Records
---
Amino acid sequence: SETNLNLVQIFLDRARKYQNRDALSYPSPEGVYQSLTWKTWEKEVRKTSAALQQLDIKKSSKLALLSENRP
C-alpha cells in the first residue's frame, strides 16, 4: 500500500512503472515545451543525489530549493 511509502519510494515506484511515459513538461528558454520521461527524470534525480552526496550533504543537513512558480 502506498500509504506506508515515503516520497522517494513513491517516485522510484512510478519511475519503474511508467519508464517511457512523460512524467513532466517544462518550457525551454525559447518558450517551447519539452517533455521528460520518468526514466530520464529518475536518472537526473540520481545524478543530483550523487552530486549532493559529493558535497557532503547528509540527511540531517538543511537545504533549500528555489524554483520559479508556474500557473
---
Amino acid sequence: IKHQDLKPGNIMMNEDKTMLKITDFGEAMNLAHTFNSKKAEAGTSYYKAPEQHKSVSTLESDIWSYGCIVL
C-alpha cells in the first residue's frame, strides 16, 4: 500500500511510546493495481516527494515523506 499522505498528524503513538500506528488511508493506493501513479495531487506539501509535485507518485514517495517526518 502506498499511503501518499504520510505526515506527523497521520501517525499515532501509544502512551509508553512502544507502538506506532499509521492512520488516514484516504489517499492510499494498492500496489497490486498500480506502481507508478499519475494521481499524486494528494498529500501535504511539506512532506511530499519532489516527484509528487510533478503529479507522479511511487512507493519511494512514502519513503521520502517518512524521512521528512523523522528529521
